[in-house]
# Entry
Amino acid sequence: MGAEFRDDLARGFAGTLDFVRGERNRADPGVAAEIQKAVEGANTRLSRPEEVKKFTILPTTWTAESGELTPKLSMRRRVIELDRGTLVRDQARGVYA
# Structure
C-alpha cells in the first residue's frame, strides 16, 4: 500500500507560508526555517508513516500554467516525475543537491 497524498493538508500547509518565487527561496535560511516549522506543525496531525521526513525547496513554483498542477491545483504526478524524478529519487536515497 503506497502513501496517499493529502491534498487537504498540502493546501493548508501552503497557505501558511508567504512564498517568494525563484532562487531566493533556496538561498534564504529564514524560508527553510519557516517551512520546517510548518512541516512540524502539519506532522502533528499525521500518523508516523504519513509524516513529512524530508523536503527540498525547488527554484521554481508549480503552477497550472507551467504544467505541474491541474486547473484545480492537483499535482500532475507524471509531469513532476519526468521533470523532478531524479531529485525525488536522490532525496529518498539521502543525496542532496
